[in-house]
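Sample intake — UPF0146 protein K933_13319
Collected from: Candidatus Halobonum tyrrellensis G22
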Amino acid sequence: MEFLARYPSVCEVGVGRRPEVARALAERGVAVTATDVHERSVPEGVRFVRDDAVAASERADPGDAYRAAAVYALDCPPDLHAPLLGLARRVDADLLFTTLGGDPPAVDARPLTLDGETLYVARERRSSGE
């Protein structure tokens, strides 16, 4: 979470029923948008947009929900890695994700070990997160 907190704005793809990271980032002053294919309840301070990130990656305009300094996904399955990388490129954002269990990343990514977890950085445009 500390690594993500360096960004002024983020979009969490696939927030699901576990918005803890989005909540913590919003509490630290990060502008957070969360997306999911299903309607989800999110904490105060987190904007929610129901959308399919794979479909967004294929649209001419992915949408404002993804326009952030960083796009991230937690427990991201391998079949979403490439579409999310394409999405991040389209909106000129960094892309960071964790994987499910021992799944390796399906795209070129730099691993960072943070708090005992591996965060993959698949696109890092800004060195300062701004």
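Post-analysis note: The CA atoms of residues 21 and 128 lie 20 Å apart.
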